[in-house]
Every structure is written in C-alpha cells, then in structure tokens.
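Hey, can you fold this one?
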Amino acid sequence: MKKFLVMLMIAVLTLGVLAACGPQRETNNAGGKNEAEGEGTTTEGVEKPEKLTVWVNDQEEQKAALEEIFAAYTEETGIKVEANGISMLDQITALALDAPAGKGPDLFFQPHDRIGDIVLQGLADPIDLGEDAELYSQTAIDAVTVDGELYGVPHVIETYGLFYNKDLVSAEEVATMEGLMKVAEENTDQAQDKYGFLMEATNFYFIYPFFAGNGGYVFNNDGSGFDAKDIGLANEGAVEGGKLVQSWFSNGYVPKEINGDIMNGLFTDGKVASVITGPWNIPTYKEALGDKLGTAILPKLDNGDVPKSFVGVKTWMLSSYSENQEWAIDLMKFTTKYENAMKYYAAAGEMPALQEALDSEEIANDELIGAFAEQTQYGEPMPNIPQMQQVWDPMGSALQFIANGDDVGEVLSEAVQQIEDNITASGAQ
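Sure. Predicted structure:
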C-alpha cells in the first residue's frame, strides 16, 4: 500500500525521476525460457487473455501498419489487441497515472533514451529474451539494456548520415572529411546562398560524431553501464572535434543561424551539395531532387574512422502492472519478427531493429536507406540513463559559443561543469 501511495502521489506531481519499485508478484511472469525452442519467453501453459492493450505512437502511418500486424496476431492467437494512439512523449505521464488504477496498457512504445527514467519510476519490468536477443541489432540490444537487464524488444533503429546532390558532387568527393571540406571550400558562396556542405552544427545530437570519432564521449561505458561521473565532453578528443566544428563557422562554410528548416529548403532548392541529417527527410528530399539524390555513411575522419553517430531505438516495453506479461512479450516478438518488421518498414518508412531485416536486400541495397542501415553499425546508442537529460542544454550553449569563436577547451570545460552541477541538482547521480 505504501508503494502504491508513493507512486500515485509522484505521478500526480509528474516528477521526472522516481525511486519507486513496480508492483510485486508471486511469480516472475517475464521469465520462463523455452529450452526446446531457444526462446526467451514462453506462453505454454499460460492462459490466454481475451485482450491485450497496447499504447502506440499517434502517428498515422505507424498506427495503420501496426493495426494490420495486430489483426494478424488476433487471427493467429484469438487474442484481441486494443491499440490506443498516444504520443510517445506523453505516454509516461499517462502511464504513471493510469497504470496503478488498472487502466494502463500491457505494453507501450518508447524511445530508448527514456528507459532509465522509466525504470526508476518502476513503470516497466525487465524482459528475458534469452537467445532471441541475438536476432536484433547488437546496437539496439545495447540501447535497451540497463544494469545488465533488457527493458525492451527493439522495434525501430535510426541514425543520421550524409545526403548529397549528384549534380553537384560525387559520392567519392564526400567520402572523407578532408574531401568534404574541399567541397565546402569550392562550392560555398554565402552571398548566393550556395554551400558545399551544411548541417545543424549547433545541435549536439548531430555534432556528437565529431567528438566521439576523435575520442570524446558523453558518459564512459566500460561494458557494465554508463558512469555519469565520468564525462568525456571536454577531453582531448572532444576539444579536437570542437575545433573542427568551429572551423566550419570561421571559414564561412556554415552560417551561424542555420537550422533544419533553412538547411532543408536550401538543399531541396538545389543550392547545397551535401547535408548531414536523418532518413526522416528522405521523402521530402526525394520529391524535390528525384534521381539526383544520393546518400552515404558519414565521411571518414582523418584517422580513418567513420564518425560514431548517435543511434536511437524505439522499443516495446512491458508494463510493470500488466497481468498478461507472457502474452504481452509474445506480441512484442510477433510484431518485430521478419515479416512484420518489413511490413512496418514498407508502411511507416522506419528501419527495423531486427538484424535479418537490416541485412535484407530490400534495405541493404536500397540506394537511399541502405547507407543509414550501414551507419547504425558504426554508431553507438544514445545514453539511456536519466542523467542524459542534463547534457543537452549545456552542450547546445557550448556549441553556440564555439560558433562565435570562443576558446573551445574553455567552453567545453565550462559545459561539463554545468552538466555535473545539473546532475547533482537533479539528484540523479
């Protein structure tokens, strides 16, 4: 009763980080490895529920694709799937309010970088996928792992890469950072709004690869989890990356006021040779440029490495309050199996986290999406611990100062100090 009251009180106050635990059960519903089939969970001997409730993201193409997949699950199992569209960003507040009252879902859908906070709130239970974990991209599995336990079945994986206009530049010319800088030098005329290269260069999400590729990192991870007390955003590699970014501004390659809308407009107008952004822009770019549009992984750095982009994973999570956990996990696995993963990809345009799907000819050989699938292999999951929320604002401010020509080392040291202070103030140490 005490745990229930604590959870309810905090949910009503909508605090971001809680130390509550999920409801206790006599048995661990999420376990039960099927030794014969090598699966992480089994529904053998478990009574079927009449219905499973799922919270899906409220994006129309995604909802339509999932409803078709859920209908197939109902036909196969006889279990009705009730899909409620709620924005991913709103689901956790709603879950904290509804789940203790028995009105929550059996499974819900979240970006992986929110998992740490969700786990602290006691809203999700771990999932034992057993050997089935090997079916998914290792990067995706790493993304949904907290303290050695899986807290999701990965559904979608995404990262960013390079788009280029084939009429203005070749893939070979932008395959390396040295080549990209040459393209920027030769094709940039700000007076004519023409550029060789553009990106949102004060957005830390996109800039991170140039820190990480030189040895910078957000939180150190030795394989046992992220250490929020070891921040590598002002080390030698991060400073080197920051100086590279600063050179784009000082050389006039990238305007200080650039944002996504401006960049997209210039690129679709044919005034920019190459841009760094994500596959979500493929439809817009393809409509504007047609066969002139090309994609590639991020340009190799001078050390020969492909920059480590942030990788995001959208994942199914298991509600701590579900009374049908075995079947909820069964539905997660059904939704992400090859046939359904490809069906979702075709309808919603988001890359599957299932490795077999990523390796399929349909994706690997796709002239546009294939590069992003390859880039996920070089990227690293965005940290999934609550402390990550304290990184964005200080690093965004730091990049603004870097764009204005301030000393990179000093700026990044100040940003790290601010991150540490923010983490201490938040209590999430």
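Confidence is low (pLDDT under 50) at residues 1-40. Let me know if you want another pass with a different chain boundary.
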